[in-house]
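seq:
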Amino acid sequence: MATIEDELTGLHNRRSFLALLRRHIGYANERRTNLALIVADIDGFARLNAAHGYEFGDRALRHVAQQLREVIRPQDYAARIGDNRFALILPGVMNAGHAELAVQKLFRLFEVPFDGGKSKVRMTATVGAAVCPMHASQAEFLLRQAEKSLEVARNTGQRWLFPPECEDDRGFSEFWDLEIELDGAVQRGETYLTYQPKLRLSDLQPVGAEALMRWQHRARGLVSPEQFIPIAEQTGQIKGMTIWALNTALRHASEWEHTHGRLNVAVNVPAELVGQEDLPDLVENALKLWSAPDTQLVLEITERSLVMDPRHSFKILSRIRDLGVKISIDDFGTGYSCLAYFKDIPADELKIDKSFVAGLLTDPACADIASLIIDLAHRFNLSVVAEGVEDEATLEALRQRHCDVVQGHLFAKAMALDEFSAWLRRAAPPDAVRRAV
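struct:
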């Protein structure tokens, strides 16, 4: 029987929380009463872990759990629903003002510094709140409204917010169902990796592949990554899925049969993992298990991973590069490109976002941006990858700009392991690459 408690804090875990929220939203709708949902993130928790260590961080989380127990009434529920994200379910509140009182009481409890033994820290939280039926009448949408409020509060420098606007809550049941079904998908063998080749532009020979995660649901069929990856990120499942992808990609790459020299395999790492202290250890463990002499691991990260805390992220990425792993900045040019940190960036490769590649022939601005990215990267001894190459004219435009590596449907789609292995064996001369499309 699955536990309903979070092992670290003793609060309800995410699965138990979701079941409770759905049940009590049902009661609230039947009885025409109000229910408040409060979602709180501990601010700067990654930095707290980095400064004081994970044991200190765990004690801090247990302290927060105890604070939440002091806020709630006997009929309320407290849960830990993410690494440093907590939630309160408050059935039977009179109105939104009662939810606000609970938020303010929570803030007052946080004003007392946490005594972790050797150090005392004053923790703060950013909070989002929502009330049923005022902001939503479905459990899944009420949660999204509270989480959206939290994100808006954080981005605007506020401590807490109700939903900034009310939206139609139809269509969120599927999102909710997918969230529940995604839990355990890896263990059930429903996830797998596909590989899209990356080719050296000068001779169109393979230099490696990007590993892309897929979810083959037992009833729904193939679920788009655009659906399940954001769900995994929001629900805290993305870390386990990333570790699985890392180990699986390295294991597969060690088995590739080819005559192309050393090939790289690229794995995407979400922004929230880049700042975590244990990421280098997780990478090192995977390398010890699966690394092969003719395989080069590349971690693809986004610019957002860097700007949240550049100094800390750079330190983590430098430790990973010391393991012989290369770092690629994905979707470059679409985020927060900043020359102030670019000169010190611990990276080996930039990937031009496919939106710029798609507009290379028709939009002068896209063409200028692509040229600038390539020139800037080469000045700092970085390789440049253009993704989303769909036609010969775009390929030629990239060749004229001295791009280094290309990937896209002009050469091959993302393929399952067996298909990609066969493609590698066929891809000897450049002409064979074209025939493989």
